Amino acid sequence: MIDDQNIPDRDEGINGYQKIDRYNPELIQNLSASYLDVLKQIGENPNREGLLKTPERIAKAMLYLTHGYDLDARDILNSAMFKEEYSQMVIVKDIEVYSMCEHHMLPFFGKAHIAYIPNGYVVGLSKIPRIVDVFARRLQVQERLTNEIRDCIQETLNPIGVGVVIECRHLCMSMRGVQKQNSVTTTSAFTGEFLKGQTRTEFLNLISSNLS
Ligand SMILES: Nc1nc2c(ncn2[C@@H]2O[C@H](COP(=O)(O)OP(=O)(O)OP(=O)(O)O)[C@@H](O)[C@H]2O)c(=O)[nH]1
Ligand SMILES: [Zn+2]
Questions:
Q1: Is 146 touching ligand 1 by the criterion CB < 6 Å?
Q2: What is the protein's quaternary organization (predicted)?
Q3: Catalytically active residues, by annotation
């Protein structure tokens, strides 16, 4: 068991996550040492040529794959909101999602489809995939990822409604565990106008060519 007593007090960063300097050489070195230990414990020989730099590579990869902890999605949306009298649904679909499940730290990946109905302001289109990444590049469950994206857009942009649909394959369900190769998990979250049948149906129809 890990001794919680040895975990230093959390220096709280954005949204209560611990603030770390992801590019600090000492941090990379410590994390590499941990992965060196992992290699030994799974029965590998960390001294063979192919593995010599692997602990450091994994350390850097893990720090990259969790860099969403450092970013504030609300700041990103706030930085590109424009007054505009467009009042129809705006949909950005087929946004690639790469995240890691918090249970096994294995990837889950797929697509997000996001819509909102403006209420006086629109947001720079690229910011929507950007906030997907902010929340996806953390340890996640798909349901929370879906809700966090919805809440961020609703609370920042204050639109008439938000719709989020995410469909992903979870490697923890395909390469291990239950070993189902073809299952896709779909989650959704709505606010405002999207809670009404007609708007939700319109959104789901417009993205339905993607849903399997
Ligand atoms: N709801 C939800 N569950 C997830 C997600 N990612 C992984 N899981 C599930 O988390 C659960 C963890 O269950 P446990 O029984 O504690 O873990 P386990 O023994 O490794 O379970 P198996 O995967 O069934 O072998 C598993 O059922 C996973 O499929 C996710 O995004 N959302
Ligand atoms: Zn998992």
A1: no
A2: Homopolymer.
A3: 101-104, 142, 170, 172
4-69 CATH pick, 2.60.40.10, 1.10.286.10, 3.40.640.10, 1.10.3720.10: 1.10.286.10
- Contact criterion met (CB below 8 Å) for 71 and 110: no
H helix runs in 20-139, sequence order: 25-41, 54-65, 73-78, 127-136
- Cβ–Cβ under 8 Å, residues 64 and 20: no
Sequence ranges of the domains in the chain: 4-69, 82-207
Whole-angstrom distance, CA of residue 33 vs CA of residue 178: 32
CB of 75 closer than 8 Å to CB of 146: no
Whether residue 101 has its Cβ less than 6 Å from ligand 1: yes
Fold (CATH) for 82-207: GTP Cyclohydrolase I, domain 2 (3.30.1130)
Span 51-64, pLDDT tens digits: 999 999 999 999 99
What gap in Å lies between CA 14 and CA 26, rounded to an integer? 22
CA-closest residue to ligand 1 atom 7: 101
So what's the ipTM on this one?
0.92
